[in-house]
């Protein structure tokens, strides 16, 4: 049966998502946003624990689930049972991608390793997201995103210098691994289009975090320099900090480039600052970072936030507020670009959530529906796609397989 036509560049691609929680499912969300038909496989009865996660649960319903499971179809299937494994392999025959984020070795224990998947679908792409990757001495360890953030180097450099390492307030390690898994999937799909061959995409959380750490390892390897926690600044990059205003707000100003700093100095009414040896170059400003920040803070503290931003924007100096959710929902630029989209939801009426990123001019993605109920698409997938009749589906349900 052909996939129901959906908008987006991945329309016509079917992804069977067998993961849970965040790292795998966020990759599924990204692919679904781009138009893929994502069939999410969940354990009967309980489903993905993400259905219950989140800080706020009005009426007992998660507000995270409708976002991370959007654009997906839900089927129930017990992969621990042989009948469930056989049914999963039938799904694989109709798929382009299998996405999973179990601990390495789990698919192998279920007799669903890549070689067996390939027997049923030679072009299948198996995308595997895990804490430490599929190989190496740590591969068998349990690995959450927070552990990957620590091992990948992000935690050590996050926070204030006089306090223990902090976290970002988001599950950034999981999300980075999912994003890299999606990039790998797209590359594998292109390779298969050219050669007909599938492959395994191995995305480790700690490596996805490591990939974001710029020259951190190289600096230590060559110069013995270890980046440390520096709070709201980057050492030797000035001015780029958060500055106070007269009405109690905080404005981020980033004017560390020479030409931009000259514009900032002129806006402050002190154009001569840009000519002083202490501030004339990027390196000099970095060496005098603390005193320069104080000088700018003394100036910003004399202005209300709106007036200050007007001055800076008119002068071409990058500056902005530090947004919270309520600011995003009220901001005209967010509104003009539909950065936040409101999606109908059977439980909540409508839900605001981030729109699809990135934007494609010819084949844009879309948010078509919020996270489905558990097993909502059993009939469509097992009946229409796999051809199981009502009696077969009923028997599998009674046996607890689906």
TrEMBL record:
Entry-linked InterPro entries: CoA-transferase_III_domain, CoA-Trfase_fam_III, CoA-Trfase_III_dom3_sf, CoA-Trfase_III_dom_1_sf
A Gene Ontology molecular function term of the record: CoA-transferase activity
Pfam families named among the record's database cross-references: CoA_transf_3
Keywords in alphabetical order: Transferase
Source superkingdom: Bacteria
SUPFAM superfamilies associated with the record: CoA-transferase family III (CaiB/BaiF) (SSF89796)
Official protein name in the record: Formyl-CoA transferase
């Amino acid at each position: 049966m052909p996939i129901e036509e959906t908008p987006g560049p991945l329309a016509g691609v079917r992804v069977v998502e067998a993961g849970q929680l965040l790292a795998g499912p966020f990759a599924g969300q990204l692919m679904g946003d781009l138009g893929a038909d994502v069939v999410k496989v969940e354990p009967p009865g309980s489903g993905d624990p993400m259905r219950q996660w989140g800080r706020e649960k009005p009426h007992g319903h998660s507000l995270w689930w409708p976002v991370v499971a959007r654009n997906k179809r839900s089927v129930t299937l017990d992969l621990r049972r042989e009948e469930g494994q056989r049914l999963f392999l039938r799904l694989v025959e109709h798929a382009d991608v299998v996405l999973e984020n179990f601990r390495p070795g789990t698919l192998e224990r279920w007799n669903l390793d890549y070689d067996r998947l390939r027997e049923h679908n030679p072009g299948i792409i198996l995308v595997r997201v895990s804490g430490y990757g599929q190989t190496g001495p740590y591969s068998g360890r349990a690995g959450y995103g927070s552990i990957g953030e620590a091992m990948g180097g992000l935690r050590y450099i996050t926070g204030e210098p006089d306090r223990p390492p902090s976290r970002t307030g988001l599950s950034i390690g999981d999300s980075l691994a999912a994003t890299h898994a999606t990039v790998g999937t797209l590359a594998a799909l292109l390779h298969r289009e050219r050669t007909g061959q599938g492959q395994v995409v191995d995305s480790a959380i700690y490596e996805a975090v490591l990939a974001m750490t710029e020259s951190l390892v190289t600096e230590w390897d060559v110069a013995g320099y270890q980046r440390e926690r520096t709070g709201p600044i980057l050492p030797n990059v000035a001015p780029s900090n958060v500055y106070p205003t007269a009405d109690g707000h905080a404005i981020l100003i980033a004017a560390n480039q020479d030409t931009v700093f000259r514009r900032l100095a002129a806006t402050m009414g002190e154009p001569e600052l840009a000519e002083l040896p202490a501030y004339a170059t990027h390196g000099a400003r970095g060496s005098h970072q603390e005193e320069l920040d104080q000088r700018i803070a003394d100036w910003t503290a004399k202005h209300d936030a709106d007036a200050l931003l007007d001055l800076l924007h008119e002068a071409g100096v990058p500056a902005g507020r530090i947004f919270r959710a309520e600011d995003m929902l009220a901001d005209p630029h967010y509104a003009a670009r539909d950065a936040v989209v409101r999606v109908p939801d059977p439980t909540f009426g409508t839900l605001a959530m981030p729109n699809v990123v990135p934007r494609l001019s010819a084949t844009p993605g879309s948010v078509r529906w919020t996270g489905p109920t558990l097993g909502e698409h059993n009939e469509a997938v097992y009946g229409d796609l796999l051809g199981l009749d009502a009696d077969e589906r009923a028997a599998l349900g009674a046996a607890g397989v689906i």
